[in-house]
Amino acid sequence: MKDFETYIFDLDGTLLSTLNDLAASTNYALRWAGMPERSVEEIRMFVGNGVKLLMERAIPDGINNPKFEETYAKFREHYMEHNLDTTRPYDGIPELLRELKGRGKKLAIVSNKFYAATQELAKYFFPDTIEIAIGERDNIRKKPAPDTVLEALKQLNASKAGAVYIGDSDVDIMTAKNCELPCISVLWGFRDKEFLIKHGGKIFVDKPSEILSD
C-alpha cells in the first residue's frame, strides 16, 4: 500500500463496529412510537448518511410522519446513553492506529454521526491516536460534501497532497472523490465489495494491517 502522511477515517463500519447499538436505539425509538421494528440487516443498509437519514428510512413515511421529530429525539436520547453497549473497534484497528501514530502520521475521524456521539466515541476508544474527530453539525454540510474532510485537514494543518480517505460505503467513495483524495474501501464494514465496486470503489483492503505501507 502507498505511504501517506495524513489518514482520514470514517467511523461507523470502518473503525468501530456500531451496527448493533444503532439497531437497538432505532428499535427502541420505533417501539416507543408504536411503529414496526426493523431488522439488523435493514438497518445496515440504512446507515451511512447520518442518523437523521437512518431514522427517515426506518420510520414509516419518513420525515412526513407526524411523529418523526419525537421519534428521532428518542433515538438520539437512547443512543447517547447506550452507544457503548456493544460497540467495539474492529480487530486490528487499535494496532493500526498506534502504528500509524508511531510513524508520525496525522490521523482524523470524519463521520456523518452526530457531533456529540462522534466526539464521545473517539475519546473513549482512541484517546491517544486520533487527533481530530468531526461529526455532523447544523452549520456544515455532511458527507459526501467535502466540507468536513477539508475542515479536518485544516485542523491537522495538513494538505490534500499526501492525504487519503478511508471508509466502508458509497458515501465515503463519493466523499473522497469530492475532496479529490484517493479512497481506500474496507471490506469488514457495512457494504460488500460488489456494492462498493458498483459505486466506484477501486482500492480495497480485507484487514486493517493492509493499510500500512511496506
Automatic annotation (TrEMBL):
One of its GO terms (molecular function) is phosphoglycolate phosphatase activity. Pathway: Organic acid metabolism; glycolate biosynthesis; glycolate from 2-phosphoglycolate: step 1/1. Its EC number is 3.1.3.18. One of its GO terms (biological process) is DNA repair. It catalyses: 2-phosphoglycolate + H2O = glycolate + phosphate. One of its GO terms (cellular component) is cytosol. This is phosphoglycolate phosphatase. InterPro entries: HAD-like_hydrolase_sf, HAD-like_sf, HAD-SF_hydro_IA, HAD-SF_hydro_IIIA, HAD_2, HAD_sf, PGP-like_dom2.
